[in-house]
Each structure stands twice: as structure tokens, then as C-alpha cells.
Design goal:
By secondary structure, the chain is of the alpha/beta class. Helix content is 32%, strand content 14%. The protein contains ten helices and twelve strands. The strands form three sheets. Strands 3-4-5-8-9-10-11-12 form an eight-stranded parallel barrel, surrounded by six helices. Strands 1-2 form a two-stranded antiparallel ribbon. It has a two-stranded parallel ribbon with strand order 6-7. The radius of gyration is 20 Å and the shape is globular. The protein binds flavin mononucleotide (FMN). The site of flavin mononucleotide has 20 residues, from β4 and α9.
């Protein structure tokens, strides 16, 4: 039987060669928001592994929207030039499709890198005051973030648009908005972080207002032929928080506005969350959204085994699977999955001699001449 995981998938005007996506992964290795040689090495290693789509890490649309001082940004000419250098090298040597995840960290900004405690950096120690829908801190012992006023909302909406224009100039193939994991857009959705009493808080319609305004503004600035997706936390895993039913309403609204996929993650807004971690623990959420709305979904979270990934796509749980940690562990995961499932991948000519005999024609019709 032919592998569904290794069948092409059309996303708007882009056709992915397979259903496997490298999930966005912060590297905390940028300087003033600008990509460094680390990004060249890291993305180069992943791009050589033939994923259908490689999504770059959460990339801040303004400096105070970075999670950490080392986070990637796309808010300045210097940021754009640094990414241009990285992308030029990647494109010279790989045919991989690249997408970028645009983000604003909201109240989780101004943090140390995870390997350096991950705690809030106080403003008097090189940090800054984060902004959020409401002056409610992520954790009770932290000072409250600044609640955004109308001017702040307009500034951030415009920052998303400006970064979208930069992404378009850089020739990205796809764009994903980060509306998950307790960052700004998710903070607006979740009643846990959003305690506003104006048109941006309270009812579901009001809580969705700002994320949808950002989506509309970005959709208008991003070419209609290029895919635009949204990563959501489909549940807060907290009683009284954001939940799958509300996510379905949001997914309907996004689909109506021209969203091309929902990347289905969860959690991140509250330390009270109880996440039932286990293989494919978020797949049922992708399935629910796909079934209820008909939008393409990306499943993510502890998908590590090729047969498991094949079953998710073939069984109609999701159209795409995204892997994060599994890709860091094995940047050639896609090749190994293809060998197991009878798929083929376009591998770099320089590596054509690599497959062991048992892998068969995993690279298709390649012939090596030597004398
Ligand atoms: C090192 C690392 C960095 C991450 N950074 C991001 C990020 O920038 N944006 C995002 O939406 N998720 C981020 N995540 C979450 C992953 O994209 C993914 O959803 C999560 O790790 C579950 O998938 P996995 O089990 O395949 O690792 C990160 C995960 C890791 C391990």
C-alpha cells in the first residue's frame, strides 16, 4: 500500500512533497533579534532531512514581544538582513519549503532562556515590562504585565503586518501565527489571562476579536496564493479555561477568513494545567477541529514513530504531522520513515550514497557514477 504520509499535500498555492513538518522551535540564539550562524547550522541540518515544510521558530514582531533576549525577531532591517543571509544559503543547497512562525510573547516575555532557569528577568536586571490583555501575571509571584490600551493593540497589529511584509520580501513559502502556549494571542482567547471588560474581553466573541483582527490584517498583507496557518492551544487543560468547543468556533471563524491550516497544540497559559502526556496526546484535538470545520489540521505532540505518523494521516486525524524533539534527535527522521513506509524523498545529491541496502530506493532513482 502506498504511504499517505509520503503523498503530496496542497496548501493554497504551495504543494508539500510529504505530510511531515518540522515544528517551530525557539533556539534562544539570536542577537538583538537577528539570526546568527547557529541558525544557519541548525536550520541547515533540519532542511537537509527533506521535510515537507520547515517552520522557523517563534519570531517576534516587536522587541518586547520576544520571550527571551535571545529570541529571533523580524522587526528591524538588521533582523531581515540576517535572515536573508541564512535563507540564501539554505536555498542554495536545499529545495526545502520554509515557513516562519510570527509571534508575540505577551506576558511571558522578558524571560531567561530555559537552560538558564526560564524565569522572568526583572526590568532592573536587563528585562522589560511585558504587555498582556490584562494586568494578570503568568505566575502569582511575578509583577503584573501592562494591560494593553487601544494604541498598544493598534501598534501590535501593525507590527504583525510589518513582519509579514518582511517575511514576504524574504520569500518565505508559508506563514504561521502563534496563538498558542500562553503567548499574547492565546492570552486574549483564554479567560484565564483575559479579564478585560471592554470589547476585547468577556464573551467568546470579544476574546476572539484581537486574534481575528491580527489574522485579518496579516491575511491582507500576505499574498492570497501563499498559505497562512494558525497554531492554537486547543485547550488550556484547566477547568473554566479555553477549551476544544471554543477552539472549534475559532477555527470556523479563521477558515471563513482564509486560514489554510490549524496547527493543534495545547496548554501554556496556566501552571494549573493537567496535561495527560503520552504518545499523540493532542491528536484527538486535531481530529475534532478537522471533523467539525473541514479545515486542514496539523497534529503535533509526541509523534515519534513512523507507523504512528502514517496512521494519523491515513486515518483522517490530521492532514499533516509536525515533529519537534524527534527532529532534533534524528534530523533524518523523514528519510528513516520513508525507508520504513516505502516512501521516497528528495535527498541532497551529496548524500545519495548513504542509504543501507535494506532502505531500498528511498531516494528514488538515483545513480552514482564512480571511476
Ligand atoms: C526546543 C523547543 C523549542 C520550541 N519552540 C517553539 C516555538 O518556537 N513555537 C511553538 O509554537 N512551539 C515551540 N515548541 C513546541 C514544539 O513545536 C512542539 O509543539 C512540542 O515540542 C511537541 O512536539 P514534540 O513532542 O514533537 O516535541 C518548542 C519545543 C521545543 C522542544
Amino acid at each position: 500500500m502506498t504511504s499517505q504520509l509520503f503523498s503530496p499535500f496542497p496548501l493554497s498555492g504551495l504543494t508539500l512533497p510529504n505530510r511531515i513538518v518540522v515544528s517551530p522551535m525557539c533556539q534562544y540564539s539570536a542577537e538583538d533579534g537577528s539570526a546568527t550562524d547557529w541558525h544557519l547550522m541548525h536550520l541547515g541540518s533540519l532542511a537537509l532531512g527533506s521535510p515537507g515544510l520547515l517552520l522557523l521558530e517563534a519570531t517576534a514582531v516587536e522587541a518586547i514581544g520576544r520571550i527571551t533576549p535571545g529570541c529571533l525577531g523580524l522587526y528591524s532591517d538588521a533582523n531581515e538582513a540576517a535572515l536573508e543571509r541564512v535563507l540564501r544559503a539554505l536555498r542554495r543547497w536545499t529545495p526545502t519549503h520554509f515557513g516562519i512562525q510570527l509571534a508575540h510573547a505577551g506576558r511571558k516575555a522578558s524571560s531567561h532562556a530555559p537552560w538558564d532557569t526560564g524565569m522572568l528577568i526583572p526590568a532592573d536586571a536587563g528585562g522589560w515590562r511585558p504587555v498582556a490583555p490584562s494586568a494578570v501575571p503568568q505566575s502569582g509571584d511575578e509583577p503584573p504585565p501592562e494591560a494593553l490600551d487601544a494604541a498598544g493593540l493598534a501598534r501590535i497589529r501593525e507590527a504583525f503586518v510589518a513582519s509579514t511584509r518582511r517575511a514576504q520580501r524574504l520569500g518565505f513559502d508559508a506563514l504561521e501565527l502563534h496563538s498558542a502556549h500562553g503567548y499574547l494571542l492565546h492570552e486574549f482567547l483564554s479567560p484565564i489571562a483575559n479579564r478585560r471588560t471592554d470589547a476585547y474581553g468577556g464573551t467568546l466573541e470579544n476574546r476572539m476579536r484581537f486574534p481575528l483582527e491580527v489574522f485579518d490584517a496579516v491575511r491582507a498583507a500576505w499574498p492570497s496564493t501563499k498559505p497562512l496557518g494558525v497554531r492554537v492551544s486547543a485547550t488550556d487543560w484547566v477547568e473554566g479555561g479555553w477549551d476544544p468547543e471554543q477552539t472549534v468556533v475559532l477555527a470556523h471563524a479563521l477558515k471563513d477568513r482564509g486560514c489554510d491550516w490549524i496547527d493543534t497544540s495545547s496548554g501554556g497559559v496556566s501552571s494549573q494545567q493537567k496535561i495527560p502526556l503520552g504518545p499523540g496526546y493532542q491528536v484527538h484535538l486535531a481530529r475534532l477541529i478537522r471533523k467539525e470545520t473541514g479545515i486542514a489540521t496539523m497534529a503535533v505532540g509526541l509523534i515519534t514513530d513512523p507507523q504512528q505518523a502514517e496512521a494519523i494521516v491515513a486515518g483522517g486525524d490530521a492532514d499533516l504531522v509536525a515533529l519537534a524533539r524527534g527532529m532534533l534527535w534524528d534530523p533524518h527522521w523523514v528519510w528513516h520513515a520513508a525507508a520504513q513506509l516505502g516512501g521516497t524523498v528528495a535527498a541532497p545529491v551529496q548524500y545519495w550514497r548513504s542509504p543501507p541496502k535494506a532502505a531500498g530506493r528511498v531516494f528514488g532513482d538515483t545513480s552514482i557514477g564512480m571511476r
